[in-house]
Amino acid sequence: MGGRPEFYGKIAHSPDEPTFHQPWEGRVFGMTIFVQALVGPNIDAARYDLERLPREVYLASYYRRWLGGLESLLVNKGYLGAAELDARLDGSVAEPGSRRMPKAKLVVTARVLRLMRRSTYPRLMVTQVLPRALGGSRPTLSRRKFTVGDPVLVRGQRASGHTRQPGYVTGKPGVVTAHLGATLFPDAHATRTRARPQHLYTVSFEGSDLWGASAEAGTEVRVDLYESYLEPR
Amino acid sequence: MSEPDKSAVRVEALEALLVEKGLVDPRVVDEVIEHYENNVGSMNGARVVARAWTDAKFRERLLADGTAAVAEFGFGGPEGQLIVAVENTPEVHNVVVCTLCSCYPWPLLGLPPAWYKSAEYRSRVVAEPRAVLTELGVEVSPDRRIRVWDSSAEARYLVLPERPAGTDHLDVDALAGLVTRDSMIGVGRPLAASGDAR
């Protein structure tokens, strides 16, 4: 939604907000962490699910959106009937979800989450093990196309499904300022399509190249972009 | 019923269903909530910043490879697998956003506050950062560049703010107490040293 005036408005800022404003927000967060670990869509698939929620749910409060995402995940996976939760609330009868979760998986997930729930980790785990396991860093043999200082142009079209190419840089010129290694490619990962890991770059854009005459002076935006989003210029 | 009340009732019913179906262990949900409310938060990032202010070698390591540098504290893991620290200087002021969703360095700053996830902040800060910072009470002089970092992929950004003046006498723990969450996002400044601090 970067640069889209229909979303503009005063920012309801407060310097010391609580982690959760209401207890139910915490429950939605905790249940989502649990269920995602248990039935496992990856983070890209989960984001794609959120993006496809009805517009009024997507734009509702943050944890209302998470609640919508959690419900649709459970329904899509067959663990929850489409009308089962509504039926529980109004006392009517509805078809329950057909799928069952083996007890052993619940126990294992609970154990893994307990192990992960720590504020510090051994150094090797955070520099080597977790980045691989969580998808952030993947080795690739493909040579990178760009290097720091290269002028690039963001391709003029965005992918139709999930993508990490922001609309406001589409078709815009920038300069590569960093190479961040290679990672899983979210656009493919979201739909579980097999795809090679891709090189990831930080690209700097001048405010005036993005916003034209309305740009504020002396401003720039740096965006992390996958190699296939970029063309040489 | 108000919207929050409706949500509360719906969430309670959902949790009851999921527990019946063996899809959630409510004790683990309690622990996850407790963890993010109490153990993970901006106090972690504040320790990293205070160390960088007092240890030039660490500052260099932090700016060269943020992931490895914060791992010296044991920080990392989910939403913090690739940490990039960016330093405010007399020439550049940095500010962080995620225009696509709400990416944020959880291990260093905790879960993101509501305003950071709001459509207003996400849409405006890339296009009119000066106006946004002014609105949030941060004056950046016109000759200083503003660099907005849109965390659109794997990297999670931490702003290394300027050390406040008059803090030479403070030790690393006292300095960490001056580092606010907002200052590490770039929408605030560290607190000033209080007059009677020793």
Molecular structure report:
The complex is a heterodimer of chains A (233) and B (198). Chain A has 233 residues and is α+β, with helices and mostly antiparallel strands. Chain A is 37% helix and 15% strand. Chain A contains 9 helices and 5 strands, in the order αααααααββαβαββ. In chain A, α1 runs parallel beside α4. The longest helix of chain A has 17 residues, at 23-39. Chain A is globular. The model of chain A has no long low-confidence stretch (mean pLDDT 87). Chain B is mostly helical. Chain B has helices at residues 3-20, 26-38, 42-54, 56-64, 66-71, 106-109, 114-117, 119-124, 129-135, 172-176, 181-185; strands at residues 83-87, 92-97, 145-150, 156-160. In chain B, the strands form 2 sheets. Chain B has a two-stranded parallel ribbon. In chain B, strands 2-3 form a two-stranded parallel ribbon. Classes of the chains: A alpha+beta (233), B mainly alpha (198). Chains A and B meet through α1, α4, α5, α6 and α7 of A and α1, α2, α5, α7 and α8 of B.
